[in-house]
Amino acid sequence: MKKASLLIAVLAYACNLVAQIHEPQILVLAPKEFKYDKVFESEVKEKSKELSKFQTSEEMLAYSQSDEFKSQPENMQIIALAQIEFNKDLDFSKRATMIAQSHLTYRFFERFPNLLILPTKIESGGSVVELKRISDDAKMQYVLNFSKITLYKKQGIGFATISVQLYDQASQSLLINADYEGDWFSQGFEFGCENESIDCPINNALSQILENVVLEVASNSPALKKDKELALLRLEELKTSYLSKPYDKDFLKSVLPHAGEDINLDDQYQILIDPSQTKFVAFLLNKRPIKILKSLQKATRTIK
User: pTM of this prediction?
Assistant: First the structure.
C-alpha cells in the first residue's frame, strides 16, 4: 500500500511540476462502462485472467528507484511510473487504454521526444464539465476518454463500438465526441490480431479513433503550426527570390564538362548557386516521348 501511495504521490508531483513544458500532453482514461453479449463472456474472462498476470514485478519497482532509471529523461520516468501504477489489477476492459497510450506515444515520439502521454484508471461518463475537471486537476491539455465499450454480434459477426471523447483544455471543448465501430477481422500491421477474437473489434475501432486523435492533436500543435508557417515562408521565398529569376545556364557545363547521356545539361530549368560558387543545386526536367509512356502503360497491364 505504501508503494502504491508513493508512486501516486510522485506522479502527481511530477505532473504538476513539468506539465507546461511537454508537448503533447494527453491523459488516457480507463473505460467508464464495458458491456458485452453473453456469447463473449468466457473469452472476456479468459482475457482478463491473462491480463491480471501482467503485474508490475518487484524488479521493475526496484528499477524505478535505481540511479539508471533516474538518469532517464524526466518525461520518460513519469510515463513509466504511470504505467507501473496502471498495470495493477488489469482486466480486459482496460486493454483499450493500454493500446491507446502505447500507440500515441509511438506516433508522436519521433517529432516530440518530450511528450507526456499517461494512462490512468480515472473514469468519466464523457461530459465536458467532468473532463474539464480531470484536465485541470492533472494539468494536462488533452483528455482521451473511452466512456463506453460494447462487444456484440450481428449477423454472426463480432463487433465493438467505442464511445470516445477527446477534450482539449485550451479550447475547453470536445474535439472528438463520437462512436466508432470495428469488426473482428484483422487489418494487420500494428493493429493486427487473431481473426474472430474479441481483440480484433477493439483494435479495429481503436485504429480509427487513434488516427483521428493524432490528426486533431497535430492540427492544434503550436510546434507543428510554426513548422508549417516556416515551410510556407520558405516556399514563398524560394519562388519569388530564386525560381523566378534568370540563371546561368553555362554554370553546369563548367562543373560537368564531360556529362554523358545520363545527364543532359540542356534539360536544366533552374539552378541555385551559392555566392561563393562552391555549392549549387540544379534542377533538370526531361520530357519523354509519348511512345515511351505508352510502352510503360502496356508493361504495367502485362504485369497486372
Answer: 0.72
